[in-house]
Every structure is written in structure tokens, then in C-alpha cells.
Amino acid sequence: MNSYNNYAQEICSNGKDDDGDGLIDLHDPDCQCHYTVTGNILQNGSFELYDHCPVNYTYDTDYKIADYWQFGTYMNIGEAIYYHNLHCSYDSAQVMQNMPPTQPIPDGSAFISIQNTTYTTPIPEPQIPKTYVGQCLQTPLQKGENYTLSFYAGRFKSWDNLTGRIYPFNVAVFGNTDCNTVPFGTQYASGNGCPANYSGWVFLGETTVYTNGVWVQGKISFNAPDNLNIIEVGPDCSVLPPINDLTDSTTFLDYHQYYLDDVHLLPTKDFPFEYITTQVENGCSGLPLLQAPVYTNATYQWYKDSIAIVDAKNATLKISDTSGTHYYNVVITTNNKCVTTEPFLITSTKLNEVRIPQDSFLCDNNTLLLSPSFPGITYSINGLKTDAVIITNAGNYTIIASDEYGCQKIFNTNITQQNCAECIVYIPTAFTPNNDGLNDVFRPKLDCFPASFHIKIFDRWGGKIFESTDINKGWDGSYSGKKMSPGAYVYFIDYKTISGRAKTIKGMLTLIL
């Protein structure tokens, strides 16, 4: 596997931290495959093109060193910094001596740094110095499309003590429709926090990068919520925990600076990602069988939550337990290629929790949620795919619920429309329980499905002879198995509409034989 590591080699198939860097298997850069990306929506994603060498890294002077890029936020300290390895005197005199990146640099010799600050006494996030780089896109991101931002990132030696203490860090991406919103924040502020504190900016996604002092390839995939014209890359909106200066004089500021290079932005479909497929053995009562992409003369190693499954070295993997929530990957190695598939989620299926009635009703000028979204469940409503079953019109529907393993449940339902606010009750004034098949039961009729229903019938002396909360159950003219005498009876009906309106109706009915 590709690596920029100078440490002992991690064994990537035993679930152990072999090189003692605190990172196991796929968390360790030694075990990560690297993919090559062709094409880019971004310009100068390698940062090789530049206008001038850094002067003093203030916003007024150096905010647009790298062509097409600019610092993302107003700050008078700690701007995102541009470096051109050994080509600029400041770089060679300062950065390359004190915080040099591992060689080789992923793409060319230029790179940038990102800073996220913490304090011994925390301050509000909108005041924290965080640095970003932004680019106004020549080709806007299209609303509803899936995109991926890939990059190489790394944290290297600390500025003060050169011991190279390394911690995980977050890389986040934000977007805006208006290129004029960069830089964001208040000018000359010591810190403006993250872009999401300001109007128009949306958080698109983030990832945590694990590194032991090497360049690591990472990616962030997201769905564009709008037609976005500019993106910014940098820290997320969290507040880092307080870190005191250490006894060896290492400062907390040094722990949260990382470098970025080789940044690509493309529709996700244009990336060379590989995906696991699945099938279920013994019908839908069995356990899932995962299938890796097939390569000629390839070896396979499966991982659960990035930790190796020892001896799982076939192109297929049978899952023995679907309880909990876990992600599976497989690393595929050939003579000239290393491929890590995208994570595949395994969790207990929610298919049995999907319940859709055969008949229901839709209130006027409203929508009806027949079944909510469930993790891993997709629906087809009369052939249209969706994540939840939401009905807007009366009619007959065929609804198919499918889980991630290909199992399905099919429902046929009839939806009628009604005036839920009024919900009128129609009551016969008389009935003839003589078993002739005509008007044998006293049963009120409602032009809606009530949220609750309760009927009571009394004789002329006030004795209760019938009671029910079932709207479909009527009175057959008997009490305790005996026919009641002809005459007048009193009814009371209490019900509540779907809209929450409570109603009470009372009146007289006549029993005729």
C-alpha cells in the first residue's frame, strides 16, 4: 500500500497496533490505499500557481497568494498560510526548519496550512480564531447533486519542541451561493469562528483525519442543498477542549495546525470509488452475504469498523450478526493496484417495523404520513422511489418497502379524502331489529375517521343498555342477550376529530318491531 511513513510498518490484517503509533489497521496511514483523481471543479487544487511569496501573512498583504484561492475569514492573526517548499525564503527559514512536512509533498511542492485555536479558558466559538481557504467556483455546484471533496492532509512536528506529538483533526467544507461573502466575519477581529455563524453559509460535511505525522488522503461527500458558487475548507464549528501548555514548553496553538494539498472537487460519480454489494441467503430470513468487487488475481482483506477481521480473506463475507450498527470495508490488492471499498452499513433490518394500513383517509388541504423514514429502508409508491411514505392525494396505492439487503414488503392501500375539521355524524331516527336484513342495527355514520369515538344508549328510566368505542359496532336492540321493548331510547355520542376538535351529540331514537 502507498505510504509516506517513516515509522515501522503496521501489519494491516491482525487488529493490532504493531508500530505503536496508536492507530490500528485502516485508521493507520500504513494501511490506507490511495486513489488517483482526474479532473477538478477547483482551479489550482495543488496550490502550485502563486502570485508572490509570503510577506507577513496578514490579510491586507497576503490574502491571495495562491492563484484562485483566498483566505476565508477576516483575522489579524493566524491567517491560513501559503507555503511553497524551499521556493520562498520565509518557508525555508521557518517552516522547513521547525514544522517541515513529510517528503514527498503529495502534489508538487506547494501546500497551505489550516489553524484551529483552543484556549486554557474556553471562549465562545464565534470568537475563536479559525482559518479557511475559499474559492469562487467557475462551475457552480448544482442543487440536489452529490459531490465529493478529496484532499491530502497531515499534522507534523510541533513548532516548539520538535517531538512531533500528533493528534487527529477535522477537515470540514462549507458552501455559499454568493462569492462576495468571502471573507466572512468582522474585519480585524482576533477570531470569527466558523462560516456557519454567518448568513448564507451552510455546513456541507466533515471528516476526521488520523495521522502519525504523514500525509493522509481523505474525502468528504455531501449533497448540495442549493446552487453553490463558493466553498471554504477548514475546521468544523466545534469548540476544542482546553489544552494547557506542557512542561516541555509545547504550546496548545501548535496542536491544531495541519497542512492541505492536492484538493479535488467533483461529482461523486466521477470518483474511482468501489462499492460492496449484498445478497441474503435462504431468502429474507437469512443473514446477509457481502460481495466485493471482483479483480483478477486479487487478494482480499475485510474490516469491521476499520479493524481487520482475521482470516476474512475471500471475495465474499457472510455476516454472522446484524445487531448493532457497523460499517464493513474490504481492501482489494492486485499486482499493481490497491482498492479500499466504500463503507457498507450493516444493521438490524427495520423492514418488520414498517406497517401500512389497507384503508386510511386524507384530510382536506393536508398531507398524510403513512410510514416514516427508517435507517436502511427505501419505499416505492406506485413506482416512485422515496425515503418516507407521504400521501398528498386520495387514491389507490401500491407501496413497496425494501431494506438494504434486498428484502421487500408490499402493501396495497386505499386513501379517501374527508373534511377533518367538520366530521359530520348522520344518525337514523329509528331502526327495526327484526332480522329481516334491513335496518337491523342502530349505527351512526360519520363522514370522517375520528381520533376517538364513544357512544352510550339509555332506556327511558336512565339505565345504560349499550356502550361502545368501536365506530363500526352498532346496537342490535338487545341488552344482556334479551330483546328490548319497542319505544324511545336516548343516545349520547362523544367524538374527537383528527384536527383535535371535540364534539358531543345527543338525541332520541325509536326502536320499532
Write a compact overview of the structure shown.
The chain has 2 helices and 34 strands. The chain is mainly beta.
What does this 3D model show about the protein?
The protein is an all-beta fold and 513 residues long. The protein folds into four domains: 39-270, Sandwich (Jelly Rolls), CATH 2.60.120; 277-347, Immunoglobulin-like, CATH 2.60.40; 354-418, Immunoglobulin-like, CATH 2.60.40; 425-511, Immunoglobulin-like (Sandwich), CATH 2.60.40. It is built from two helices and 34 strands. It has helices at 59-62, 89-98, and strands at residues 70-71, 81-84, 110-115, 133-141, 146-154, 169-176, 202-209, 216-223, 228-234, 257-267, 277-280, 288-291, 299-304, 307-308, 316-318, 325-333, 338-340, 344-347, 359-363, 368-371, 378-381, 384-386, 389-391, 395-402, 408-418, 425-426, 430-431, 445-446, 452-458, 464-468, 478-479, 482-483, 487-496, 502-511. A five-stranded antiparallel sheet has the order 1-4-9-6-7, with no helix packed on it. A five-stranded antiparallel sheet has the order 2-3-10-5-8, with no helix packed on it. Strand 13 and strand 14 form a beta hairpin. It is elongated and about 110 Å long. Mean pLDDT is 85; it is low at 1-7 and 248-254.
